Amino acid sequence: MTEKKKLGRNQKDTNDDMINLVDNLNQKDDLKYNRRAFLKTAVGTSVALGAATIPFSVKAMLGIAEKDYERVEIAKLSDIPEGDSVTFYYPTESDPALLIHTVNGDLKAYNSACTHLMCPVFYEKTQDVLLCPCHAGYFDVNNGHPKAGPPQRELPLIEIEVDNGIVYAVGRQYRHG
User: Fold this and answer.
1) Cα–Cα dist 171/50, whole Å
2) 39 near 46, Cβ under 8 Å?
């Protein structure tokens, strides 16, 4: 057996650069950064993220996550003529909302931030619709669903009660997922 054949796999037997390209590979890196290690990391991360959401899922299933909203006075019913609207904030001071006394005499309330880009929504009495003037978005005043324009989701509904001629906000519903 000649001396050349006894050389190991990564030992140089020539000085030709094209043949010695394997010198730039590090066997330790090959063992550390391979597909198996990547898959182990991906599976481990997925299991950890899934386990992290378990408390939220349990809360949602038990109904613990649902908030109890305060009863907040909006306005006297006599101060809102048919075809008019009143701006108020519900459930916090940073959530603008709109109470509408429609031309048909119904009371409706929605959060007034457009679901497209959060521009304020106004009641358009002549067309009996809610209008977002930023991008010409129209919402149905009866249910808050988008009628035209870029908005794709309905406005959050504010639940209201009328007690002794005073309109109260008592809750909020997100009707889309």
Assistant:
1) 31
2) no
- The pLDDT tens digits for 106-162 are 999 999 999 999 999 999 989 989 999 999 999 999 999 999 999 999 999 999 999
Nearest to 99 by CA among 110, 114, 83, 113: 110
Number of H helices, E strands in the chain: 3, 10
Instruction: Provide long-range contacts, Cβ within 8 A and 24+ apart, for 84-93.
Output: 84/123, 84/125, 85/122, 85/123, 87/112, 88/169, 90/158, 90/169, 90/172, 91/67, 91/169, 91/172
């309330």: which residue's tokens? 109
Q: How far apart are CA 86 and CA 82, in angstroms?
A: 11
Give burial (CB, 10 Å; 0-12/13-18/19+) of 61.
exposed
Tell me the Cα Rg of the chain: 32
Q: Looking at this protein, which amino acid is placed at residue 64?
A: I
For the whole model, what pTM was predicted? 0.63
Tokens coding 126: 């002549």
Which two tokens mark 10?
């990564």
